[in-house]
Known about the structure:
This protein has about 230 residues and is of the alpha+beta class.
Amino acid sequence: MIDLYYWPTPNGDKITVMLEETGLDYRIKPVNIGSGDQFQPEFLAIAPNNKIPAIVDHAPADGGAPLSVFESGAILQYLAGKTGRFGGQGLREQAQVSQWLMWQMAGLGPMSGQMGHFAVYAPQIVPYAIERYDSEVRRLHRVMDKRLSEVPYLAGEHYSIADIAAWPWIQVYAKRPPDFAAFPHLARWHAAIAERPAVKRACALRPTVNPQLGQPLGEEEKRHLFGQR
Length: 229
């Protein structure tokens, strides 16, 4: 049994997709980041950066005590190692998976998040910031499109945790949709992953955990989410 500390965000969705893909037994422990659950001592004990997601594996491979892991990329790597799935086979494929996973963690996720913050949530319009992050996300989408014009998936021929990490970050903000017309290979990849049964099951969990998903944020939620607590 794996406990998943989760809230419906792109980083959280990476892990529900992975757990559904691998068929591991898990239960969701909701962490309402809009009401400040991420600052509770019991959560900080396993996720000291006060960010979701985090997991506790009650049956680690070494047979020892329950093992906690935080940071979405580290969790994906851990689950790939635990199951022997989606982490790449052999030295070269594993290297491809690792570098594209790190690309998402260091680039696509943070830059998309900043784009959304300044374009959707910021209390003041800052044209420079909006243009800066819009341009960077478009550049990253161009990088993906070129890569996906050469191979079916980010790491090559096989679907992997690199794809699982990147997919939730492509179509996050209704006000800033990706330019699929300009990036047809990205569009093909995104649509193909959306049709995977495990991805559909993971996406169906989102409104069950947060029935207010998609509603405008209140002032208290903004304080908790944007560091004004």
